[in-house]
Design goal:
This protein is an alpha/beta fold. The protein has one domain: Rossmann fold. The chain has a five-stranded parallel sheet, with helices on both faces. Strand 2, helix 2 and strand 3 form a beta-alpha-beta unit. It is globular and about 45 Å long.
Amino acid sequence: MAVAVYPGTFDPVTNGHLDILHRASQIFGKVIVGVAPNVPKDPLFTMQERIDLIAHNVDSNNISITEFDGLVVDFARAQNATVLIRGLRAVSDFEFEFQMTQMNRDLDPGIETIFLMPSASYFFTSSTLMKQVSFYDPERIEKFVPLNVAAALKRKFNHD
């Protein structure tokens, strides 16, 4: 049973992320969601909040969630994973993902990257867009994020 790592900042987790996570959990024996701090992005949610928001929406025994800092290939190797899961939404994602995949392959040729595409209804969603829309009108994101995430965004932007 192959072990896969699904890395990301998940600030916050979206239905697109969860769609990819569900797809990955159907393919791999174990999927580890690796939540990265990504300080340069200045996350809205703390590490623990991001982990809790994801955990609230995971009900599969073959999915675990943990934080990591450093190179994703080093984290994957420490988890005995041989696969990295990456989501591709649109052609615009491809160039960045291609470069990252090539670097990861050079750093550790024993870890392969698999790209999964979310359902069409989530192609244009991103954590950044969800935060931007929620800042002005939190009700309009409820079809793109889990209910607990919509509520957490409302609290962060004082829309209670």
